[in-house]
Amino acid sequence: QVQLQESGPGLVKPSGTLSLSCAVSGAFIGTNDYYSWVRQPPGKGLDWIGQIHLSDGNTNYCPSLQSRVAISIDKSKNQLSLQLTSVTAADTAVYYCARHSGFSFPTWGQGTLVTVSS
Amino acid sequence: EVVLTQSPGTLSLSPGERATLSCRASQSVESRFLTWYQQKPGQAPRLIIYSASSRATGIPDRFSGSVSGTDFTLTISRLEPEDFAVYYCQQYIPSFSGYTFGQGTKLEVK
Questions:
Q1: Omega into A63 within 30° of 0, i.e. cis?
Q2: B50: distance to nearest CA of chain A, Å?
Q3: What's the CA gap between A77 and A80, in Å, rounded?
Q4: pLDDT tens digit string along A28-49?
Q5: pLDDT of residue A77
Q6: How would DSSP label each residue in B17-77?
Q7: Given A45, A63, A108, which is nearest B101 (Cβ)?
Q8: A-to-B residue pairs, Cβ atoms closer than 8 angstroms
Q9: Interface residues of chain B, partner chain A, Cβ below 8 Å
């Protein structure tokens, strides 16, 4: 059974770069899988950030974040990465990674809270 | 821009009652692109329904999904105490190969 675990700094300064990792266990990265990053500001709904196709590294991003976001994979470490540049307080959220099955996300990490503050 | 509008924002019901949650898409959506999630406080979302009407593994049969045109419905036939949570619909959007979520419906105990 695939398990996901997000990790990274819980505090990022405004205008800085948010960097998170998602460790994948129970599955070998390199299969024909898609993974997404999703975030949830405190007390608000879910926002899709972007996805990566593991077999070829192809990515797609939410249009409103496309200029600031990058998702990548490190097959040697069996993990995904998220980078979000030029962050502001509006980027404060719980960040989740999720594994796709078809067009739905059956597997999620537990999420990690990132606060943007000086 | 493709928008999913969920209604009502909050639904107050009692255990044993029937819950009907709505998700309306601003444009035509293929049923296979529509998903429902349940989220409880402090937890990650949990997949409930995929392809508009297929129950995910381990989801009890009191949960059902249906579609009529661009209107998608999640029905919980007889509410159990553990069903009170926030429910989100999600849509895959082929035009940018991405996803969007509805704003959520909070199902609370009356």
A1: no
A2: 6
A3: 9
A4: 766 788 999 999 999 999 999 9
A5: 87
A6: S-EEEEEEESS---GGGEEEEEE-TTS--EEEEETTTEEPTT--TTEEEEEETTEEEEEES
A7: A45
A8: 65
A9: 32-33, 35, 37, 39, 44-47, 50-51, 56-57, 88, 90, 92, 96-104
Which of A47, A103, A111 lies at the smallest CB-CB distance from B101?
A47
C-alpha span between B81 and B84 (Å, rounded): 6
* Residue B24, pLDDT above cutoff 80: yes
- pLDDT at site A29: 67
pLDDT in tens, B30-68: 999 999 999 999 999 999 999 999 999 999 999 999 999
Of A38, A45, A103, the CB nearest to B104: A45
Spell out the residues 6+ positions from residue A53 whose beta carbon is closer than 8 angstroms to its own: A32, A33, A34, A59
Contacts of A62 in chain B (CB under 8 A): 98
Helix (H) or strand (E) holding B94: none
Buried b / exposed e across A25-45, counting CB within 10 Å, b at 16+? eebebeeebbbbbbbbeeeee
Residues B101, A110: C-beta atoms closer than 8 Å:
no
